[in-house]
Amino acid sequence: MAALRAGLLGVGMMGRHHARVLREVEGVELVAIADPGGDPHGVAGPLTVLPDLDALIAEGVDMVVVAVPTQFHEKAALTLAEAGVHALVEKPIAHSIEAGKRMTRAFADRGLVGAVGHVERFNPALQELRRRLAEGDLGDVYQIATRRQSGFPTRIADVGVAKDLASHDIDLTAWVAQSDYASVFAQTTFKSGRSHEDMIAVTGRLESGVIVNHLVNWLSPMKERVTVVTGERGAFVADTATGDLTFYANGTIPLEWESVSSFRGVSEGDVTRFSFAKREPLRVEHEVFRDAVLGEKNDLVTFEQGLRTLTVVEAALDSARTGTSVSL
Questions:
Q1: Between β-strands 63-66 and 4-9, what pairing exists: parallel, antiparallel or unpaired?
Q2: Are 132 and 138 contacting, i.e. CB atoms less than 8 angstroms apart?
Q3: How far from each other are the two terminal CA atoms of the chain, in whole angstroms?
Q4: Does the global pTM surpass 0.90?
Q5: Among 151, 173, 239, 296, which is most exposed with the fewest C-beta within 10 angstroms?
Q6: What is the CATH number of domain 4-118+282-299?
Q7: Segments making up each domain of the chain, as ranges
Q8: Looking at the keywords, is Ligase present (predicted)?
């Protein structure tokens, strides 16, 4: 069977990684690249860098990865839908809920695959975490807390930290817990002199009753990518920067050392860091997109799911503006 002909729109900081992976995925051939800004990272290789999406489509592509700034997602997606081309659009799905709805309808009406690049779902630590939660290793889940902190990315100017980074945490939390958000309350700060927020703290509750908390910012001197799931039998800690998953079990042996037990709270049990295969998340994401285009079984992050995540992000931003909790 002939390989799927893939195109890439945008070869910036994220696009360069897509270019590399598209060349590595079996059953896919990267045949065209387009970016009006040229090829700053030198990833085109033998391919000519085309000036726009129309030129890309003219190359006869079956699928396109859209890795341009968020404000351009809708126009690119609608153009691809009109041309009958499947698309993987980087997160968030769009700059607004209405834009996301138009994209979702366009692809659904034409029977096309529309995927959103919420790549954290394919992180090995989170995939292993979800599997263990589904098997009941933690018992009842009480709380999911995430921390996503790092320095300021000057290249991102069209959205704030909520849409760029918190969207990861909101998507992965609902996916890991298999439950949608019921309500959110958020606070933001604006320290970088721009109109978009650079720090957000979100608390909320899922429809399942699980309490959630997200601390996200572009104002930290260290990089942190951590998800903590606390439940009946202990706590899982997933570090998505390293792909590690650790389980802190509640203890069954009473502590007799009074000076220790007095401040430990829940009795301390075994601590286990699991060993499992760790494949690159972006590669797995591309394989899933390929399988979806081929009509095979897959775990795609659909446009519908990406739109739901954006709806929660917008609700959090509304909460921060109004100082009130928002129900979803």
A1: parallel
A2: yes
A3: 45
A4: yes
A5: 296
A6: 3.40.50.720
A7: 4-118+282-299, 121-277+310-327
A8: no
Structure tokens at 255: 């502590």
Widest pairwise Cα distance in the chain: 74
**Which overall architecture, per CATH, does domain 121-277+310-327 show?**
2-Layer Sandwich (3.30)
What is the identity of the amino acid at 54? Answer: D
Per-residue pLDDT of the chain (328 residues; tens, 9 = 90+): 689 999 999 999 999 999 999 999 999 999 999 999 999 999 999 999 999 999 999 999 999 999 999 999 999 999 999 999 999 999 999 999 999 999 999 999 999 999 999 999 999 999 999 999 999 999 999 999 999 999 887 766 678 999 999 999 999 999 999 999 999 999 999 998 888 999 999 999 999 999 999 999 999 999 999 999 999 999 999 999 999 999 999 986 666 666 555 555 566 789 999 999 999 999 999 999 999 999 999 999 999 999 999 999 999 999 999 999 999 9
Cα–Cα distance measured from residue 144 to residue 295, given in angstroms and rounded to the nearest whole number:
34
Place of tokens 């030198």: 42
For 125-150, b/e burial (b = at least 16 CB within 10 A) is bbbbbbebbeeeebeebeebbbbbbb
